[in-house]
Design goal:
Number of helices: 14
Distance between the termini: 20 Å
Order of helices and strands: HHHHHHHHHHHHHH
Shape: globular
Radius of gyration: 20 Å
Helix content: over 70%
């Protein structure tokens, strides 16, 4: 299901240029349209946590996965800007529901196995994103229009989701009676939310500004500029697939502290030493450092005493997504005042904040075996 989620998103991303051209949108108009996704995501995330607490993560994951696949062609079918915005709000809302549902289901599976698994699940999201991007790029290069492209991808991925749905757990990790469905934010959830916010702020900043930093500040060619984010992404995927083993052997608190420190030092060196190869190594450190933080934070949120895991997960995820949404524009505004090099220093600060707040991932009950 994590693979399907990543593949759906990346197939949509590969079609954005064609849809922009088809509707004759300026960059500004496209930016307005693209805001629809995070708006829908932020609206749906808390509601999904409540639904999972009522119905269990298994049924919601099945519904969200199929809806996510079937909603994939909607943006390509929009004939004008207003309908594109509406389509992207719907698509973003289902994306948010899918994200909370698969993480809640992943938490339930992780608790069954009584060992860390969440980081590997997020690694499969990265694999899905890579496969979807490569396949989508290949289809686009053949001149296939966005509507048949996304319709074909939707049907194929829906079949994969249906096959996977038979292996899902039927219920959430805890029942509604074992935890509150609505609760005032606990101090531990606030801390976890801040860590998620800082981590996703860094991910968003690297995605949107890494190539610009290499091209404009370090004055590299376009190939090396793209390589900065490619190395970041590769290091993040590697970190996610090794993260569970590392967590099992070193503990979640040490992992978060080391990861935040590694990301902060790596990016700081990249900003201080104006050499492309140093920046490449530094960006790899940022990718590896940030890779396991969100999975560990989501896992810790789901173990918070006195509140349903899905609700706690939704609260932390919503806070984190604010970082991913507002991080890149924040870097842009700060760059106007501090230069891009200085603005990216905010990511150094946010990564260091993660290291300082590492203890928050331990403020939860110990993993238990749960039975349907």
């Amino acid at each position: 299901m994590f693979f399907v989620s990543g593949a759906v998103l990346s197939n949509w991303v590969t079609c954005i240029p064609e849809i922009q051209q088809k509707l004759g949108l300026s960059h500004g108009a496209l930016g307005v349209a693209l805001l629809g996704m995070p708006v829908g995501l932020l609206l749906a995330t808390p509601i999904t946590g409540w639904l999972i607490a009522r119905m269990g993560s298994g049924p919601i994951t099945k519904i969200a996965a199929l809806a996510y696949c079937l909603a994939l062609p909607l943006p390509a079918l929009a004939p004008k800007l207003l309908l594109l915005v509406i389509a992207l709000v719907v698509f973003g809302a289902i994306s948010g529901a899918m994200s909370v549902a698969i993480n809640a289901q992943g938490l339930a599976v992780e608790q069954r196995y009584v060992r860390p698994l969440m980081s590997s699940f997020h690694g499969m999201f990265s694999v899905g994103g890579l496969v979807g991007a490569v396949a989508g790029g290949a289809v686009a290069s053949l001149g296939v229009a966005p509507v048949p492209h996304l319709l074909g991808a939707a049907l194929l991925l829906a079949m994969v989701a249906i096959l996977a749905s038979h292996r899902l757990l039927l219920s959430s990790a805890v029942t509604v009676s074992q935890g509150q469905v609505f609760a005032l934010p606990k101090r531990s959830l606030v801390g976890l939310g801040i860590v998620a916010f800082c981590s996703l702020l860094g991910e968003g900043a690297m995605a949107d500004w890494s190539a610009v930093y290499f091209r404009q500040v370090l004055e590299t060619g376009p190939g090396l500029a793209a390589g900065g984010y490619a190395v970041f992404s590769l290091a993040m995927a590697c970190g996610r697939f090794t993260g569970d083993w590392n967590t099992q052997h070193f503990g979640s608190v040490r992992m978060v502290r080391f990861s935040g420190t590694l990301a902060a030092i790596g990016l700081m060196l990249s900003l201080i030493v104006s050499q492309p190869m140093v920046a490449i190594i530094g960006f790899a450190c940022v990718g590896f450092g940030l890779s396991s933080i969100v999975p560990l934070v989501f896992s810790a949120a789901g173990r918070t005493p006195g509140i349903a895991p899905s609700v706690a997960l939704a609260a932390v995820a919503t806070t984190g997504y604010f970082g991913f949404l507002f991080g890149p524009p924040l870097i842009g505004f700060a760059a106007e005042l501090l230069t891009l090099r200085g603005a990216l220093g905010l990511v150094v600060v946010s990564s260091a904040t993660i290291a300082v707040l590492a203890q928050t991932v331990a403020r939860s009950r110990e993993p238990e075996l749960y039975v349907d």
